[in-house]
From TrEMBL:
InterPro entries: Bact_Lucif_Oxidored, CmoO-like, Luciferase-like_dom, Luciferase-like_sf. It comes from Ornithinimicrobium pratense. This is LLM class flavin-dependent oxidoreductase. GO terms for cellular component: cytosol. It holds the Pfam family Bac_luciferase. To bacterial alkanal monooxygenase alpha and beta chains.
Length: 342
């Protein structure tokens, strides 16, 4: 079996999901267990995606969660997947992630997005700034400046500084679910992660724009060539039948999100059509078109084909199960089949 070193880099996206009957404290502890297992198995990164006002995801304060994970892991890179920058002051983001890097060293990534990560009312309560592309690009550049080299003594007088933060050079990634993020990533010379796990329609166009317009000579450039990652919904189980059954939890979650009926994760069901009105069933397909569900060998083949098709440098996979122990089992089976050495 090929080792992971001969395959595309594999990472994990976590939203700290809450299952029915579970407390928020329990959901966070289950994600700590996942981080520890991912660390031991050999996954490259574990990112947490910012969501607000969600009954299903306990991931509103990503920097606090990542610090919690860092205390309990030793190797795996941790990061935001992402921080929704218009929800925050760039200075405050630099201070938070600069503090994490100061405490734990070079283990953190800053994935940046411009979506609200919530409903319009909650977005307004967050006092969002503009998410328009030029404003967003300017805020990204400002954030990078805060994390860069300290100003000289004369040049530093009167300047706003992120302390701690400056000099940590926390790596930035641009996230996107459309072509907008691709344009910003290309113009700024940043690595680009496409959210194909929930918005697959524009992946080809976004990656093409990113690669065609990439500027390695930008003052903000952090990589010397286009560098890409994409999200995939994955569920691995010993049999296809069990994988399909367990995946109904993720399908019900997608239907709830798309139909405006938020709730904690549902238990799996034998037949979706028995519990979901027929007109809502297509919502799961639209939300999770990029999904790989099945036995370990089958999933490995599908992931390799997807990575080759889009010429990806990295895959970031996300898994939802009602029973968090089965989520960890899915990642363990995938790591073993991928040839990770831990």
């Amino acid at each position: 079996m090929p080792t992971s070193s001969s395959r595309t880099t594999l990472s994990i996206l976590d939203l700290v999901p809450l299952s029915q009957g579970m407390t928020p404290t329990e959901a966070i502890e289950e994600s700590v267990k996942l981080a520890q297992e991912a660390d031991e198995l050999g996954y490259h990164r574990l990112w947490v995606a910012e969501h607000h006002g969600s009954e299903a995801f306990m991931a509103s304060a990503t920097s606090l969660l990542l610090g919690h994970f860092a205390d309990r892991t030793s190797r795996i890179r941790l990061g935001s997947g992402g921080v929704m920058l218009p929800n925050h002051s760039p200075l405050m983001v630099a201070e938070y992630y600069g503090t994490l890097a100061t405490i734990h060293g070079d283990r953190f990534d800053l994935g940046l997005g411009r979506a609200p990560g919530t409903d319009p009312m909650t977005a307004a309560a967050l006092a969002r700034s503009s998410g328009h592309l030029p404003d967003f690009a300017s805020e990204v550049a400002q954030l990078q400046q805060y994390l860069g080299n300290p100003p000289t003594l004369t040049g530093g007088r009167g300047q706003v500084r992120a302390i701690p933060g400056e000099g940590t050079h926390v790596p930035l990634w641009m996230l996107g679910s459309s072509t907008g993020g691709a344009q910003v990533a290309a113009a700024l010379g940043l690595p680009f992660s496409f959210a194909s796990h929930f918005a697959p329609d524009q992946i080809r166009e976004a990656l093409l724009i990113y690669r065609d317009r990439f500027r390695a000579d930008a003052d903000t450039a952090q990589v010397d060539r286009p560098t890409t990652m994409a999200g995939v919904n994955v569920l691995v189980a010993p049999t296809q039948e069990e994988a399909d059954y367990l995946f109904t939890t993720a399908q019900l979650m997608a239907i709830r999100i798309r139909s405006g009926q938020p709730a904690p994760l549902d238990p799996p069901v034998e037949n979706l059509a028995d519990v979901v009105p027929s007109q809502l069933l297509p919502l799961a397909e639209a939300h999770q078109a990029v999904r790989m569900v099945g036995t370990p060998d089958r999933i490995v083949t599908q992931l390799e084909e997807f990575a080759a098709q889009h010429e990806l440098d990295e895959l970031i996979v996300t898994t939802y199960t009602y029973d968090p122990a089965l989520r960890r089992r899915s990642y363990r089976l995938l790591a073993e089949a991928w040839g990770m050495t831990g």
